[in-house]
Amino acid sequence: MPTPLIPTTVNLIKATVPALEVHGLEITRRMYERLFRDPAMRDLFNQSHQGENGSQPKALAQAVLAYARNIDNLGALGGAVERIAQKHVALNILPEHYPAVGDALLGAIGDILGGAATDEICAAWGEAYWFLAELLIGREAAIYRDLAAKSGGWNGWRDLVVESVTEESDTIRSFVLVPADGGPILRHEPGQHLGFLFTLPGHGVLKRTYSISCAPNDCAYRITVKREAGPIMPAGAVSNWLHDHAAPGTVLRVAPPAGDFFLDRTTGAPVVLVSGGVGLTPMMSMLGAIASEAPERPTWYVHGSLNGRVHAMRRELAAAAEATPNLHVRTFYAAPEAEDRLGVDYDEEGLVTAEWLIANTPHARATFYLCGPGPFMASLSDGLHRAGVPAERVRFETFGPTLELEEPAPALAA
């Protein structure tokens, strides 16, 4: 554990909260601008989350503000620290990367706050940054050690080969990956993701994470990827490349499984899995684990899709439902097309709502696992909280930055 912050530092950090409330996003945008002057540091980050409308600067601004507000109660941020550490491991972030980030953050604070960023304020933020950095470095080192020590485990990037490709819908494909060295793989926790390192012509080095969509095993991983058509490149660069170029025999650089969003397999209590769009990927891994290990476990799977053309993995889900007597499946189509048959292809028209979940699942006993777009997640988590579902029984995964150090919020606790 790093040395605790002294009271003077704590008080100085809390005194900056009003300025961060006003200027936090300016500071984080300037921080990334400074940081990305070094191409090696730029390549550590997902550039599709940057830019004027990027989600990464906003997530970091929220993180910095929450950290300042909770600087005297850091235990409240423990769950967020674990999420950050897990994502860093998936992207192979190492201790030597932290000084550059710290320098960029402190420089941005000075740039944006000007004279208000006194020597005392900058020194306090330097201490606060390194306190958090040391927490993360320590936790990440423990995760790296654990991954390397397990059967089939590794650190850094390993060559995995695409064994097969499957069309799941008009916009979604699955890729089965096996080790190029012929060795075993680390069994993932159902719900975790893999980190990937790509070097693409015209885009340089790109890093992405994709959820594993198969049950844990010793031989192969499967990722299920939606083709994205982002208006600002490199949004969609990797997903498009996978759809257009990845074929049996393609070699990919892959980090070991990571992430703190995964199915609790230590209990047989009811679970409700809820996904929107391609958010079904970790749920398919969880369903596979339940089907093979605990088919008697009471399980509800509720999925929302636009229509049948983009609804992926329907046959696999139908087979799982047939083989798992305690699995209850309900599918929502927001905009069904003429050929989509109510009662055959889907069960409900419209959007998945918290009210529907409360009325149709064992919400008083079940743990909810949620994955999908941001608005989908926010609506469901808030509605479940208002209905009295405790925070510890609402777990979630979103697509995009997970850097946020959120303040304690029952509706969003992981």
The N- to C-terminal Cα distance equals: 23 Å
Number of domains: 3
The number of distinct β-strands equals 12
Beta-sheet strand percentage?
15-25%
What would you say this structure looks like, in words?
It is a single chain. 39% of the residues lie in helices and 19% in strands. It is α/β, with parallel strands linked by helices and 414 residues long. The chain has three domains: 7-149, Globins (Globin-like); 158-254, Elongation Factor Tu (Ef-tu), domain 3 (Beta Barrel), CATH 2.40.30; 271-412, Nucleotide-binding domain of ferredoxin-NADP reductase (FNR) module (Rossmann fold), CATH 3.40.50.
Give the SSE map:
Elements: H1 7-15, H2 17-35, H3 39-42, H4 55-69, H5 78-90, H6 98-113, H7 119-149, E1 158-167, E2 172-179, E3 193-200, E4 204-211, E5 221-226, H8 237-245, E6 251-254, E7 271-276, H9 280-293, E8 299-305, H10 314-323, E9 327-333, E10 348-349, H11 354-360, E11 367-372, H12 374-386, E12 394-398
Parallel strand pairs: 7-8, 7-11, 8-9, 9-10, 11-12
Antiparallel strand pairs: 1-2, 1-6, 2-5, 3-4, 3-6
Q: Care to give the gist of this entry?
A:
The protein has helices at residues 7-15, 17-35, 39-42, 55-69, 78-90, 98-113, 119-149, 237-245, 280-293, 314-323, 354-360, 374-386, and strands spanning 158-167, 172-179, 193-200, 204-211, 221-226, 251-254, 271-276, 299-305, 327-333, 348-349, 367-372, 394-398. With 414 residues, it is of the alpha/beta class.
Key structural traits:
3 domains, 19% strand, 12 helices, Elongation Factor Tu (Ef-tu), domain 3, 6-stranded antiparallel sheet, 414 residues, Rossmann fold, Globin-like, disordered C terminus, 39% helix, alpha/beta
